[in-house]
Specification:
Elements lengths: L1 E3 L4 E4 L6 H9 L4 E3 L9 H6 L10 E6 L2 H13 L2 H4 L6 H9 L3 H4 L7 H5 L4 E5 L3 H11 L25 H10 L1 H7 L5
Parallel strand pairs: 2-4, 4-5
Antiparallel strand pairs: 1-2, 1-3
Helix pairs in contact: 5-9
Protein name: Sulfotransferase family protein
GO molecular function, one term: sulfotransferase activity
GO cellular component, one term: membrane
C-alpha cells in the first residue's frame, strides 16, 4: 500500500493484480511511501484503523482488480514457485481448486485468497482492471497529474494463456461461488 500525502492518494495493493508494478511506479514519485511495513497487502480498513495516518479525509483511494478465475490460476502458479509452499501446492490445478472448496486452513490464511472487495471496502475507490492495466494506470495517474511509466515486475515469464482452458465446469463453479461478491461488484464473468 502506498500513500502520497502531497497528492492525497492511496494505492491499495490487492494481491495478484500487478500491484508490485504499480507500487514501484508510484514509489518513483516524490512523496510516495509504503504505508504498511511487514505486509504489502493491507486493506483500506486496515489503513483507516491504523494510527499512522491521522486523517485521510479527501484522499483518493485506488486499486486494481482482476478476473477471479484468472487471479486464482495466477495464485496457483505463483505458490508453485515458492519453496515455502511448494510441498503444499498440488501440481494439478483442479486439486488446488478443491483445496479452496474444502477451505484448507493454510490456504485460507493467505491474503491472496481473500475477496478483492475486502481490500477496498469502506472507501470510495477508483478501480482499474488488470485486463486493461496500462490504459487504466495512465488514466488514474493522470487524474493525479502524474506521468509515470509502469514497469513489468513479478509477471509470469510464460506467454499469456487463456485461464478458461484450466477449468472444468465444476471448478469454474467453485471459483464463481467463492468469489461471488467480487463478480457482482466488479462485473466479471467466466467468459
Amino acid at each position: 500500500m502506498i500513500v502520497n500525502h502531497s497528492r492525497e492518494l492511496v494505492f491499495i495493493h490487492i494481491p495478484k493484480t500487478a500491484g508490485t508494478s504499480v507500487q514501484n511506479a508510484l514509489l518513483s514519485f516524490p512523496g510516495s511511501r509504503i504505508a504498511n511495513r511487514g505486509t504489502k497487502h493491507w486493506t483500506a480498513n486496515d489503513l483507516l484503523r491504523s494510527r499512522r495516518h491521522q486523517s485521510l479525509d479527501g484522499y483518493v483511494f485506488f486499486a486494481f482488480v482482476r478476473n477471479p478465475w484468472d487471479r486464482f490460476l495466477s495464485l496457483h502458479r505463483y505458490l508453485s514457485t515458492k519453496p515455502k509452499f511448494r510441498s503444499r501446492v498440488p501440481d494439478q490445478f483442479a486439486t488446488f481448486v478443491t483445496l479452496l472448496a474444502n477451505r484448507e486452513p493454510w490456504l485460507m490464511r493467505l491474503h491472496s485468497i481473500r475477496l478483492q472487495l475486502d481490500f477496498v471496502a469502506g472507501t470510495e475507490c477508483k478501480i482499474g482492471r488488470y485486463e486493461s492495466l496500462v490504459e487504466d494506470f495512465a488514466a488514474i495517474t493522470a487524474s493525479f497529474e502524474l506521468k509515470l511509466e509502469l514497469p513489468r515486475l513479478n509477471g509470469s515469464a510464460k506467454r499469456k494463456v487463456d485461464y478458461r482452458q484450466f477449468y472444468s465446469d465444476v471448478d469454474a463453479e467453485i471459483i464463481g461461488r467463492e468469489y461471488e461478491a467480487d463478480l457482482k461488484q466488479f462485473g466479471y464473468t467466466f467468459d
